[in-house]
Give the backbone structure.
Amino acid sequence: MVAINRRELLAGLGVAALAGGKAIAAPRAPLVLAAASLQESLTKAAEVWTAKGHARPILSFAASSALARQIAAGAAADLFLSADEPWMDDIEKRGLIVPGSRAAFLGNRLVVIQPASIAAPAATVPLARLLAEGRVAMADPSAVPAGRYGEAALTRLGLWQAVAPRVVRGESVRAALALVERGAARWGVVYATDARASAQVRAIRMFPANSHPAIRYPIARLKASTSADAEPFRRFLLSREGRAIFTRYGFTSL
Protein backbone atom coordinates (compact mmCIF):
# COMPACT_ATOMS: atom_id res chain seq x y z
CA MET A 1 0.00 0.00 0.00
CA VAL A 2 1.31 3.46 -0.91
CA ALA A 3 1.25 5.95 1.93
CA ILE A 4 -0.23 9.36 1.12
CA ASN A 5 0.60 12.13 3.55
CA ARG A 6 -1.86 14.80 4.61
CA ARG A 7 -0.35 17.53 2.39
CA GLU A 8 -0.61 15.31 -0.71
CA LEU A 9 -4.21 14.43 0.14
CA LEU A 10 -5.16 18.08 0.55
CA ALA A 11 -3.46 18.98 -2.73
CA GLY A 12 -5.35 16.24 -4.52
CA LEU A 13 -8.60 17.59 -3.14
CA GLY A 14 -7.72 21.12 -4.25
CA VAL A 15 -7.36 22.27 -0.62
CA ALA A 16 -4.48 24.51 0.40
CA ALA A 17 -4.69 24.30 4.22
CA LEU A 18 -6.88 23.86 7.27
CA ALA A 19 -7.81 26.84 9.41
CA GLY A 20 -9.81 26.33 12.60
CA GLY A 21 -10.74 22.85 11.38
CA LYS A 22 -12.20 24.23 8.15
CA ALA A 23 -10.78 23.51 4.71
CA ILE A 24 -9.62 26.47 2.63
CA ALA A 25 -9.93 25.93 -1.11
CA ALA A 26 -6.79 26.45 -3.18
CA PRO A 27 -6.84 29.51 -5.49
CA ARG A 28 -8.82 28.94 -8.67
CA ALA A 29 -6.63 28.65 -11.74
CA PRO A 30 -6.79 31.72 -14.00
CA LEU A 31 -8.56 31.42 -17.34
CA VAL A 32 -6.38 32.98 -20.02
CA LEU A 33 -7.69 33.99 -23.45
CA ALA A 34 -4.73 34.18 -25.82
CA ALA A 35 -3.95 34.76 -29.50
CA ALA A 36 -3.59 31.51 -31.43
CA SER A 37 0.05 32.21 -32.27
CA LEU A 38 0.97 31.93 -28.57
CA GLN A 39 -0.05 28.29 -28.28
CA GLU A 40 3.32 26.59 -27.75
CA SER A 41 5.03 29.42 -25.87
CA LEU A 42 2.21 30.20 -23.45
CA THR A 43 1.66 26.50 -22.78
CA LYS A 44 5.31 26.21 -21.79
CA ALA A 45 5.04 29.32 -19.59
CA ALA A 46 2.01 27.78 -17.86
CA GLU A 47 3.99 24.59 -17.24
CA VAL A 48 6.82 26.55 -15.63
CA TRP A 49 4.33 28.49 -13.48
CA THR A 50 2.62 25.27 -12.39
CA ALA A 51 5.96 23.72 -11.45
CA LYS A 52 6.35 26.55 -8.93
CA GLY A 53 3.38 25.17 -6.98
CA HIS A 54 0.51 27.13 -8.55
CA ALA A 55 -2.73 25.85 -10.01
CA ARG A 56 -2.26 25.25 -13.73
CA PRO A 57 -3.73 28.13 -15.78
CA ILE A 58 -6.54 27.24 -18.17
CA LEU A 59 -5.56 28.39 -21.65
CA SER A 60 -7.97 29.13 -24.48
CA PHE A 61 -6.49 29.97 -27.91
CA ALA A 62 -8.24 31.61 -30.85
CA ALA A 63 -7.99 34.65 -33.10
CA SER A 64 -7.70 37.85 -31.04
CA SER A 65 -10.82 39.16 -32.77
CA ALA A 66 -12.89 36.17 -31.64
CA LEU A 67 -11.56 36.41 -28.08
CA ALA A 68 -12.26 40.14 -27.85
CA ARG A 69 -15.84 39.52 -28.94
CA GLN A 70 -16.21 36.83 -26.27
CA ILE A 71 -14.95 39.26 -23.64
CA ALA A 72 -17.34 41.95 -24.86
CA ALA A 73 -20.16 39.41 -24.62
CA GLY A 74 -19.36 38.77 -20.96
CA ALA A 75 -16.88 35.88 -20.96
CA ALA A 76 -15.76 35.21 -17.39
CA ALA A 77 -12.03 35.17 -18.09
CA ASP A 78 -9.06 36.52 -16.14
CA LEU A 79 -6.38 37.55 -18.64
CA PHE A 80 -6.33 38.56 -22.31
CA LEU A 81 -3.27 38.33 -24.55
CA SER A 82 -3.98 39.92 -27.92
CA ALA A 83 -1.89 39.75 -31.10
CA ASP A 84 -2.47 43.44 -31.77
CA GLU A 85 -3.22 46.69 -30.00
CA PRO A 86 -6.56 47.52 -31.72
CA TRP A 87 -8.47 44.57 -30.21
CA MET A 88 -7.09 45.39 -26.77
CA ASP A 89 -8.07 49.03 -27.40
CA ASP A 90 -11.59 47.84 -28.16
CA ILE A 91 -12.15 46.06 -24.86
CA GLU A 92 -10.37 48.81 -22.92
CA LYS A 93 -12.76 51.39 -24.39
CA ARG A 94 -15.60 49.19 -23.20
CA GLY A 95 -14.21 49.43 -19.67
CA LEU A 96 -13.49 45.70 -19.46
CA ILE A 97 -9.85 45.65 -18.33
CA VAL A 98 -8.38 46.50 -14.94
CA PRO A 99 -6.85 49.99 -15.08
CA GLY A 100 -3.07 49.87 -15.00
CA SER A 101 -2.88 46.18 -15.88
CA ARG A 102 -2.33 46.63 -19.63
CA ALA A 103 1.28 46.24 -20.75
CA ALA A 104 3.20 45.88 -24.00
CA PHE A 105 4.39 42.30 -23.98
CA LEU A 106 5.83 40.70 -27.13
CA GLY A 107 6.76 41.41 -30.73
CA ASN A 108 6.81 39.22 -33.85
CA ARG A 109 7.65 39.26 -37.58
CA LEU A 110 5.60 38.39 -40.65
CA VAL A 111 6.77 35.81 -43.21
CA VAL A 112 5.70 34.03 -46.39
CA ILE A 113 5.66 30.25 -46.09
CA GLN A 114 5.28 27.27 -48.41
CA PRO A 115 4.92 23.51 -47.81
CA ALA A 116 8.25 22.03 -46.72
CA SER A 117 7.77 19.25 -49.28
CA ILE A 118 8.25 21.74 -52.13
CA ALA A 119 11.73 22.87 -53.12
CA ALA A 120 12.55 26.35 -51.85
CA PRO A 121 12.80 29.05 -54.53
CA ALA A 122 16.04 30.91 -55.08
CA ALA A 123 16.51 33.87 -52.77
CA THR A 124 16.83 36.12 -55.83
CA VAL A 125 13.28 35.42 -57.03
CA PRO A 126 11.17 38.54 -56.32
CA LEU A 127 8.19 38.14 -54.01
CA ALA A 128 5.89 39.51 -56.70
CA ARG A 129 6.91 36.67 -58.99
CA LEU A 130 6.49 34.04 -56.27
CA LEU A 131 2.97 35.17 -55.44
CA ALA A 132 1.93 35.63 -59.07
CA GLU A 133 0.02 32.34 -59.04
CA GLY A 134 -1.36 29.85 -56.58
CA ARG A 135 -3.61 30.25 -53.57
CA VAL A 136 -2.38 32.26 -50.60
CA ALA A 137 -3.54 31.31 -47.10
CA MET A 138 -4.01 34.15 -44.63
CA ALA A 139 -5.91 34.84 -41.45
CA ASP A 140 -9.03 36.81 -42.31
CA PRO A 141 -7.78 40.35 -43.12
CA SER A 142 -11.12 41.87 -42.19
CA ALA A 143 -10.67 41.12 -38.50
CA VAL A 144 -7.76 38.87 -37.48
CA PRO A 145 -4.49 40.65 -36.60
CA ALA A 146 -2.20 38.41 -38.70
CA GLY A 147 -4.45 38.99 -41.71
CA ARG A 148 -4.52 42.74 -41.13
CA TYR A 149 -0.74 42.85 -40.92
CA GLY A 150 -0.50 40.71 -44.06
CA GLU A 151 -2.86 42.88 -46.08
CA ALA A 152 -0.99 46.00 -44.97
CA ALA A 153 2.35 44.51 -46.01
CA LEU A 154 1.13 43.31 -49.39
CA THR A 155 -0.55 46.66 -50.02
CA ARG A 156 2.62 48.57 -49.13
CA LEU A 157 4.58 46.35 -51.55
CA GLY A 158 2.02 46.89 -54.32
CA LEU A 159 0.91 43.24 -54.41
CA TRP A 160 -2.47 43.17 -52.67
CA GLN A 161 -4.71 43.76 -55.70
CA ALA A 162 -3.09 40.87 -57.57
CA VAL A 163 -3.08 38.52 -54.57
CA ALA A 164 -6.47 39.31 -52.99
CA PRO A 165 -8.61 37.24 -55.45
CA ARG A 166 -6.55 34.15 -54.57
CA VAL A 167 -6.51 34.57 -50.80
CA VAL A 168 -7.92 31.67 -48.77
CA ARG A 169 -9.10 33.15 -45.47
CA GLY A 170 -8.63 31.29 -42.21
CA GLU A 171 -10.41 32.06 -38.93
CA SER A 172 -7.01 32.43 -37.25
CA VAL A 173 -3.35 32.48 -38.18
CA ARG A 174 -3.11 28.82 -37.16
CA ALA A 175 -5.94 27.97 -39.54
CA ALA A 176 -3.96 29.64 -42.33
CA LEU A 177 -0.87 27.69 -41.29
CA ALA A 178 -2.85 24.43 -41.43
CA LEU A 179 -3.97 25.15 -45.01
CA VAL A 180 -0.34 25.35 -46.12
CA GLU A 181 0.60 22.27 -44.08
CA ARG A 182 -2.09 20.28 -45.89
CA GLY A 183 -1.08 21.61 -49.30
CA ALA A 184 -4.44 23.36 -49.70
CA ALA A 185 -2.58 26.60 -50.42
CA ARG A 186 0.72 27.08 -52.19
CA TRP A 187 1.71 30.05 -50.05
CA GLY A 188 0.84 31.41 -46.64
CA VAL A 189 1.33 34.64 -44.74
CA VAL A 190 1.86 33.94 -41.05
CA TYR A 191 3.99 35.03 -38.12
CA ALA A 192 7.60 33.93 -38.03
CA THR A 193 6.86 32.05 -34.80
CA ASP A 194 4.11 30.03 -36.52
CA ALA A 195 6.50 28.97 -39.28
CA ARG A 196 9.03 27.99 -36.63
CA ALA A 197 6.44 25.87 -34.79
CA SER A 198 5.71 23.64 -37.81
CA ALA A 199 8.05 21.16 -39.48
CA GLN A 200 5.62 20.94 -42.39
CA VAL A 201 6.23 24.44 -43.72
CA ARG A 202 9.21 26.56 -44.67
CA ALA A 203 9.58 30.33 -44.32
CA ILE A 204 10.91 31.67 -47.61
CA ARG A 205 10.59 35.44 -47.21
CA MET A 206 10.36 37.87 -44.31
CA PHE A 207 8.37 41.04 -44.88
CA PRO A 208 10.22 44.31 -44.24
CA ALA A 209 9.37 45.56 -40.76
CA ASN A 210 8.30 48.92 -42.22
CA SER A 211 5.80 47.32 -44.61
CA HIS A 212 3.15 46.89 -41.90
CA PRO A 213 2.29 48.24 -38.44
CA ALA A 214 4.59 47.00 -35.71
CA ILE A 215 3.40 43.61 -34.43
CA ARG A 216 2.77 44.04 -30.72
CA TYR A 217 1.11 41.68 -28.26
CA PRO A 218 -0.42 43.49 -25.25
CA ILE A 219 -1.53 41.72 -22.07
CA ALA A 220 -4.15 42.85 -19.55
CA ARG A 221 -6.19 41.57 -16.63
CA LEU A 222 -9.94 41.63 -17.13
CA LYS A 223 -12.44 43.18 -14.74
CA ALA A 224 -14.39 39.92 -14.86
CA SER A 225 -11.42 38.17 -13.23
CA THR A 226 -12.10 36.18 -10.07
CA SER A 227 -8.87 34.19 -9.78
CA ALA A 228 -6.45 35.30 -7.08
CA ASP A 229 -3.65 33.87 -9.24
CA ALA A 230 -4.50 36.04 -12.26
CA GLU A 231 -2.37 39.04 -11.29
CA PRO A 232 0.60 36.96 -10.07
CA PHE A 233 0.54 34.98 -13.33
CA ARG A 234 0.37 38.20 -15.36
CA ARG A 235 3.39 39.51 -13.49
CA PHE A 236 5.24 36.25 -14.06
CA LEU A 237 4.65 36.45 -17.81
CA LEU A 238 6.00 40.00 -17.82
CA SER A 239 9.02 39.11 -15.68
CA ARG A 240 12.47 38.45 -17.09
CA GLU A 241 11.96 34.73 -16.54
CA GLY A 242 8.57 34.75 -18.24
CA ARG A 243 9.68 36.80 -21.24
CA ALA A 244 12.70 34.52 -21.72
CA ILE A 245 10.34 31.61 -22.36
CA PHE A 246 8.69 33.46 -25.24
CA THR A 247 11.97 34.59 -26.78
CA ARG A 248 13.01 30.93 -26.97
CA TYR A 249 10.02 30.42 -29.26
CA GLY A 250 11.03 33.27 -31.54
CA PHE A 251 9.12 36.23 -30.09
CA THR A 252 10.84 39.50 -29.29
CA SER A 253 10.43 41.13 -25.89
CA LEU A 254 9.07 44.67 -25.76
Q: What stands out?
A: Residues 75 and 188 are 32 Å apart (CA to CA). The chain has two domains: 11-107+215-253, 110-211.
